[in-house]
Hints:
This protein is of the alpha/beta class and 228 residues long. It has two domains: 2-153, Alpha/beta knot (3-Layer(aba) Sandwich); 170-227, Orthogonal Bundle (Trp Operon Repressor, Chain A). It has nine helices and ten strands. It has a five-stranded parallel β-sheet with strand order 2-1-6-5-8, sandwiched between helices. The protein is elongated, with a radius of gyration of 22 Å. The mean pLDDT is 95.
Amino acid sequence: MRIDVLTLFTEMFESPLSYSILGRARERGIVDVVLSNIRDFAKDSYKKVDDKPYGGGPGMVMMPGPVFDCFEHVQKQADEKGRVILLTPQGRRFDESLAEEFSRAKRLILIAGRYEGFDERIRIGLDAEQVSIGDYVISGGELAAMVIIDAVVRLLPEALGDEDSAAEESFSQGLLEYPQYTRPEEFQGMKVPDILLSGNHAKIAEWRKQQSLERTKKQRPDLINGNQ
Ligand code: 6GU
């Protein structure tokens, strides 16, 4: 899979993309993340990429020109056209099912904005899908792009190592994960539940399922009622 990221802050991505599952997936060529700096496509000597909103109001808006030119430059680097995604709090809320959908694409092109937002003609002209990572505002699309890349790449076949597991994790079955324990058997007076030490795998599976359900009902009833 190829993931292009168009951003004003390519350096923000280096560290999060270099560790653990993501780092390994890139090393092994399971995913190719290509970072492009929108500012390289600015037209004037000040490298201007944003301007005041028509009609007035606070903040600055990303100008269409540099984003379009960066996009055109990037898109022709691979045959696959790609799914074009604009990161914005106005977008469709990202969740595990959208992550699964994205993980089946051959190419994603993520566009991260800063300032007060994008000139509307960017969305229209690029025919981009708008995606948000939740109902809160963060200072730019970069962290959102990283969240999406992480959630998508870990779903790619071969991305997870032996020590990782995707199938049993929270949300993969529409429920939260059951409680986990490791050594020691007793910590500050709190004991590991007997059932987990019993060696009875059928009973353990049943207990875990029950715990998953109870936890989801208590912490995230919306997941059960389906009104996310
Ligand atoms: Cl994609 N961008 C910004 N700025 N804030 C957000 C977001 C994106 N998703 C949730 N909040």
